[in-house]
């Protein structure tokens, strides 16, 4: 008889039960969602028919599939997450689990072990589901298992905040000097946290108002540099920093030592200080260090009105991503944005114009 989706007494998990081509099946569907269980049932039946017709399909353990997946260039974060998952499999005696045995129950257990109890859905997706599904898709393409089907994790929509130039000024004014320079640079260039922390004086040309960001977020096989033009505010912030201006990390701690080499640790430290300063500046919205990049994108679009230019200047892979980061600013904000980026020059020009006007009146 064909496979049926059933529910065992005392459990919410759905099961696949039946006999196909003489093979008796009684196994978990790996989900409590009837629609996903039905997809799993159809895929399992097709797999049994295919094996009976063409012979048993070669299988691989998840570890072997992961090793094959990692032969191609992958990000350090992806490698770290997969290694954590593989270590957990070994600790729980599942190191020989086959790709076709990696189901919903196993991933639920991995999420419980590898993430905090109150971890957000996005964290579970990033740390467990996404890297594991990538390996299983890699395996499915090579015929080692069926295409993976898991319960979708719904993510709550969080409003993306951004700051006005006036709010940015308050944050910079209340920040310690070593952090104020970093925040000014980020507000002027839209640099990511990793790009800022890895910036070296060897890649900064103050004379030509340019800097080269090396740790640009991109696909490992498409690594690229990002050249940014430095407005006067950024040049002034960099010029007063201690250091040789020739080589070495640009942004450092208050004691002159480099930040922690792991950007997750150093980034979290800087983020906590940024949030503390934002509260002191009477910014009551929930903000993080990443809000600076949203702010810069919004300012950039307000000044230039060109989404394609924003995509290129911000090193996003698509116009959709650039659009997600930019928010519509009021029409009258453009002079405030320019005043922030060109502080010093605009003040000097204003002073000169006032002096000229005063002289003409005489």
Automatic annotation (TrEMBL):
Keywords: DNA integration, DNA recombination. One of its GO terms (biological process) is DNA recombination. One of its GO terms (molecular function) is DNA binding. Pfam families: Phage_integrase. Residues 158-338 form the Tyr recombinase domain. InterPro entries: DNA_brk_join_enz (IPR011010), Integrase-like_cat_sf (IPR013762), Integrase_catalytic (IPR002104), Tyrosine_recombinase_XerCD (IPR050090). PROSITE patterns: TYR_RECOMBINASE. It comes from the Bacteria. PANTHER family: PHAGE INTEGRASE-RELATED (PTHR30349), PROPHAGE INTEGRASE INTD-RELATED (PTHR30349:SF64). This is Site-specific integrase. It comes from Limobrevibacterium gyesilva.
